[in-house]
Amino acid sequence: MKRLYEAQAYAADAGAFWKDTTPPLEWPVAEDANCDVAIIGAGFTGLNAAITLARAGRDVRVLDAEHPGWGASGRNGGFCCIGGALVGDSTLARRHGAGQAASWQATQQAAIDHVDAFLSHTGAKVDRHSHGETVLAHTPRAFKSLRAEAEDHSGARLLSPEDLRTEGLSTTWHGGLHIPTGFALNPRKYHSALAQAALDAGATLHAYSPVTKLYRDGLWHLQTPKGTIRARQVILATNGYSSEDLPAWLRARTLPVQSSVIVTRPLTDAELAEANWTSEQMAYDTRQLLHYFRKLPDNRFLFGMRGGLTARPAEQMRISQHIRRDFNAAFPAWRDVEITHEWSGLVCLMASGHPFCGAVPEHEGLFASLGYHGNGVAMGSYLGHGLAQKMIGDADPALPAFLSKPPKRFPFGAYRRQLLRPAYMFAETFDL
Fold it and tell me: Could you confirm whether the keyword Transcription regulation appears in this record (predicted)?
């Protein structure tokens, strides 16, 4: 396997809070077997695809390189919300037409509805909370921009600083925008519920089964340390944890970036009142390099931001200091509160600025769904399901056609991470 970051980026998720909230899942290691569809990656995308395919009668095997929930599906902030593209609707309309941009808007809502329907149907307990999300203006100029943005969201509500105070959303912001779409959840509990649904549908799930070689010889062959899976079709559902050479087509078509998260000890009612944050809302600020945060059901507080340019220990130490500094600036009343959990995960960017979901060109029987730009809870789930629908001939008409357009490669190949340094510097200047 050939990956972009240092080995530390793919190490065990030892610091992640979510793993302490749900029992570990036990899946067998892959051995020699044949199946209809093999899925590489057992996160939200892979498991949603497995559920849909297995319910349609396909023999499905899902392979994860590490333990269940090890990747981004067990490391994210648990925001099930609109998003999935790095570029705005106006850019998509200019590139692909107004109809396709409108279809993308509908897809974002459909993605949230898809997760909501799964939770309702299964009755899964995932610590759900938050009615939509709240965007918080970090400057007066940013609040003016939120006024214009409010027109883009049905039912959106502008919030003055006094409104924020009344609704228990701190006092350090210059206003906000409530978008009544989406909700928060415990991603590890959601992942466990998906895994159980996939098993119930008849799929086979494998852990500690990294695919070390992928090639086609009549059937697709997926070599793992303990055996080879042979399949008629294969789905790449590895997102930011993809290997550059599985297959070689994937080289430089994604750009993984690190996101870092901290979680505090449970806060007392007095501490919450001191910061005037008593709301159950998930929130993020208006910076280009945004912060995202929410109070968890047990009164812990989650706070996330962009991660380091490398995964080396010295860089991770610097980011650890950076995230604590930003947390203290946003919530000065909690500057001495203990941080009990801290971790990083990989977000997947595409050169197009939007996801890819479709057939891999010139690779018969190979499909992929990748690139959710930090919104994989909803979009990764829905596109996994949508890709499976395409494969069984039941394509969802709500999916925009541009999602299946093969993604371009980033410039600089193996050195493309260097694109992040000037981008981060520019964004930090813009955020002042």
Answer: no
Contacts of 173 (CB under 8 A, 6+ apart): 136, 137, 138, 161, 164, 285
Instruction: Count the neighbouring beta carbons within 10 Å of the beta carbon of residue 221.
Output: 17
Q: Token digits for 281?
A: 């809302």
CATH 3.40.50.720 is held by the domain 129-185+257-348: no
| CA 104/CA 84 separation, integer angstroms | 10
Long-range contacts of 64-67 (CB under 8 A, 24+ apart): 64/27, 64/205, 64/206, 64/207, 64/208, 64/209, 65/1, 65/208, 65/209, 65/210, 65/211, 65/241, 66/12, 66/207, 66/208, 66/210, 67/24, 67/25, 67/207, 67/208
Give CA–CA dist 400/379, Å, rounded.
Answer: 13
| CB-based burial label for 299 (10 Å; 0-12, 13-18, 19+) | middle
Assign domain 7-78+188-256+351-430 to its CATH superfamily: FAD/NAD(P)-binding domain (3.50.50.60)
- pLDDT tens-place string over residues 348-398: 999 999 999 999 999 999 999 999 999 999 999 999 999 999 999 986 667
Q: Delimit the domains of the chain by residue range.
A: 7-78+188-256+351-430, 129-185+257-348
**Residues written for the chain:** 432
Question: What token pair was written down for 71?
Answer: 């990747």
Cβ 418 vs Cβ 412: under 8 Å:
yes
Distance, C-alpha 385 to centroid of its chain: 15
Residue given tokens 């490398």 in the structure block: 310
Quote the CA–CA distance of 156 and 327 in Å, as a whole number: 27
Q: Please report which residue ranges of 133-279 form alpha helices under DSSP H.
A: 140-149, 161-166, 187-201, 269-275
d(CA 172, CA 339): 21
| pLDDT confidence of residue 171 | 81
User: CB-based burial of residue 417 (10 Å sphere; 0-12 exposed, 13-18 middle, 19+ buried)?
Assistant: middle
Say which range, 6-10, 207-211, 269-273, has the weakest mean pLDDT. 6-10
Q: Match 């502008």 to its residue by tokens.
A: 158
In DSSP terms, which residues pair with 261 in a beta bridge?
Answer: 304, 343
Return the C-alpha torsion angle 184, 379, 348, 283, nearest 10: -30
Q: Residue 302: which of 137, 133, 135, 76 has the closest Cα?
A: 76
pLDDT at 256: 97
Compute CA distances 391 → 56, 231, 427, whole Å: 10, 14, 40
Query: Is the per-residue pLDDT at 430 higher than 90?
Result: no
